[in-house]
Amino acid sequence: MSRLTVPKTYKLYIGGAFPRSESGRVREVLGADGEFLANAAVASRKDARDAVVAARGGHAKWAGATAYNRGQVLYRIAEVLEGRRAQFVEEIRAQQGVSAAVAGAQVDEAIDRWVWYAGWTDKYSQVAGGANPVAGPFFNLSVPEPTGLVAVVAPQEDALLGLVSAIAPILVSGNSVVVLPSEAYPLSAISLAEVLATSDVPAGVVNILTGPVADVAPWLASHADVNALDLAGAGAYDWPAFEAAAADTLKRVVRPGGPGAVAPSLERILAFTEMKTVWHTQSLR
């Protein structure tokens, strides 16, 4: 007797949980061959607000973790993703219509990118910070700290690699993230959320909202509790309008094709850090 296919509904990822969209809306995701793959939630303005609240709540624990611990967690993401490699290869192959070899190469590069950024968690501050020469009996030290809560429009051209390339460097320094993944290929984003949920990433540190970017991005750009806006994947949208909305709350904005684009780089890490300078009196004895 043949079995019935069990269609999956991919939900949002907010605060470490997988809620349905507040609106209850979903859309059909079709494969490259036009066949039905799954339903994906369509995020609303209310979902965006909930994600910002969750990200703000998760930020303190993540930013307060040691650099070594953050590196362990990012490496754990790579381990879990490696264990589910076959699932991601099949999802990418079905969504993008590419060969298994091309899909596998994308997954492998995404895994390697997590490992690469995991290695930077306890090193970037030594490169970016330092002791400053000053006149007088003082120590003057500059240390990079996380910007805070970053809203991200992930690269849209692929299902997984662009998403990982955008969020991994933001997490290195201790930021929390609300991300809009590929609108055309959303399924791998929620599968990645399942990986994050089982990789010791504190709840709320990463929040993923699927659906039309143009509907949700303006609300994140204008939200007063979002500290920075990464428009890495917004090139095909009205990103100057997003930037203008962000200006009202003095957000840091990285434009499409900004620091390092989405290639692995120290610039991507430092794009979402702030420099804290501390003065300390030297002993006169």
UniProtKB/TrEMBL annotation:
| Name of a matching Pfam family | Aldedh
Looking at the keywords, is Glycoprotein present? no
Alphabetic keyword roster:
Oxidoreductase
Q: Does the keyword Oxidoreductase apply?
A: yes
Query: Mind telling me which InterPro entries this protein's record contains?
Result: Ald_DH/histidinol_DH, Ald_DH_N, Aldehyde_DH_dom
Which residue numbers delimit the Aldehyde dehydrogenase domain?
A: 22-253
Q: Could you state a single Gene Ontology molecular function term?
A: oxidoreductase activity
Q: What is this protein called?
A: Aldehyde dehydrogenase family protein
Species name for this entry? Agromyces seonyuensis
Q: What is the lineage of its organism?
A: Bacteria, Bacillati, Actinomycetota, Actinomycetes, Micrococcales
